[in-house]
């Protein structure tokens, strides 16, 4: 393998693995498995940021990668797993149209490729593929949020969406405010998670049950 191909191959593998995690999120009914997949996707995002930092010679991306691994790959999943252990067994699964969601997900990925690749014609191959994968991640995250009702599923969808946005940002060489974008998305996610925790402590819906209950 020539060194010139290595940046593309590694970035492509990391992005593809993140996209595979997005499909796995849509295919899960067990919330514990969903949190585990989300942790893997967060860790992959951190690795992608670290790799892009090395390829682009951008030290700020190293910090973005470390934050992603620490927060999305470890800290937030640990909190979510503790929430699940405190919830009743019936609240740890969610009825979801898995087959229909996966079928629609394939169509959305095809749409993302049809949109992203033509408008980035002429750009370097690494950037084109990163943007196509990032757009796919955003669309699949929106699909997850649109087809699930539990509070934890909404948190997972928001985190997956933010992962797609950050992947797009780190893939653009010289992109300003990448660290700020990542931090802002993380703060928003943590604020939502704090709201879920507060509802659970008040006993309104054990933090994980349907947020529409009681209306």
Structure, explained:
- The protein has 215 residues and is mostly helical.
- It has one domain (3-201).
- Helices cover 76% and strands 0% of the residues.
- α2 (31-56) runs antiparallel to α3.
- The radius of gyration is 17 Å and the shape is globular.
SSE blueprint and pairings:
Layout: H1 6-26, H2 31-56, H3 60-86, H4 98-119, H5 125-147, H6 151-171, H7 178-201
Helix pairs in contact: 1-2, 1-5, 2-3, 2-6, 3-7, 4-5, 5-6, 6-7
Strand content: under 5%
> What is the total tally of β strands?
0
Order of helices and strands: HHHHHHH
Structural class: mainly alpha
Contiguous runs where pLDDT drops below 50 for at least 5 residues? 211-215
Instruction: Give the averaged pLDDT, no decimals.
Output: 82
Tell me the helix content: over 70%
Count of DSSP helices? Answer: 7
Shape: globular
Count up the domains.
1
Question: What attributes does this structure have?
Answer:
215 residues, mainly alpha, 7 helices, 0% strand, globular, disordered C terminus
């Amino acid at each position: 393998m020539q060194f010139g191909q290595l940046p593309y191959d590694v970035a492509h593998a990391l992005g593809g693995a993140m996209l595979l995690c997005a499909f796995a999120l849509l295919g899960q009914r067990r919330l514990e498995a969903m949190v585990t997949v989300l942790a893997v996707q967060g860790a992959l995002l951190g690795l992608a940021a670290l790799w892009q930092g090395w390829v682009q010679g951008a030290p700020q991306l190293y910090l973005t990668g470390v934050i992603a691994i620490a927060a999305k790959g470890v800290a937030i999943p640990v909190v979510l797993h503790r929430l699940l252990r405190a919830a009743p067994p019936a609240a740890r699964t969610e009825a979801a149209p898995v087959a229909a969601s996966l079928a629609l997900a394939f169509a959305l990925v095809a749409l993302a490729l049809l949109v992203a690749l033509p408008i980035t014609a002429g750009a370097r191959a690494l950037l084109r593929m990163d943007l196509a994968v990032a757009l796919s991640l955003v669309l699949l995250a929106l699909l997850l949020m649109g087809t699930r009702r539990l509070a934890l599923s909404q948190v997972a969808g928001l985190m997956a969406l933010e992962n797609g946005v950050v992947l797009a940002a780190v893939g653009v060489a010289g992109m300003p405010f990448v660290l700020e974008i990542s931090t802002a998305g993380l703060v928003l996610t943590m604020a939502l998670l704090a709201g879920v925790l507060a509802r659970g402590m008040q006993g309104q819906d054990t933090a994980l049950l349907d947020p529409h209950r009681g209306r």
